[in-house]
Design brief:
This protein is α+β, with helices and mostly antiparallel strands. The protein has one domain. It is 42% helix and 19% strand.
């Protein structure tokens, strides 16, 4: 199953959010280490400027990806 790219979205209350799926082959170990099994979630306050939210999204996505790579090795 292919995973979708992460997108920055707005909730109906104005908050920013993003979701990133955890690959099936590392879910058990990822959950043990980080407490998240299927999806990692990013949630930011609604008053965060869009450009800052995008920066934080990039940092968060890199962190989640690094964690996944660490677990897989």
């Amino acid at each position: 199953m292919a995973l979708r790219m992460v997108a920055l979205n707005r909730a109906s209350d104005g908050r920013w959010f993003a979701r990133k799926g955890i690959p099936e082959d590392v879910r058990d170990e990822y959950a043990r280490l980080y407490g998240v099994r299927r999806e990692a979630h990013l949630k930011l306050p609604g008053d965060t400027p869009r450009h800052e939210a995008k920066v934080q999204l990039g940092e968060w996505e890199a962190e989640v990806g690094t964690r996944g790579a660490h677990v897989a090795s």
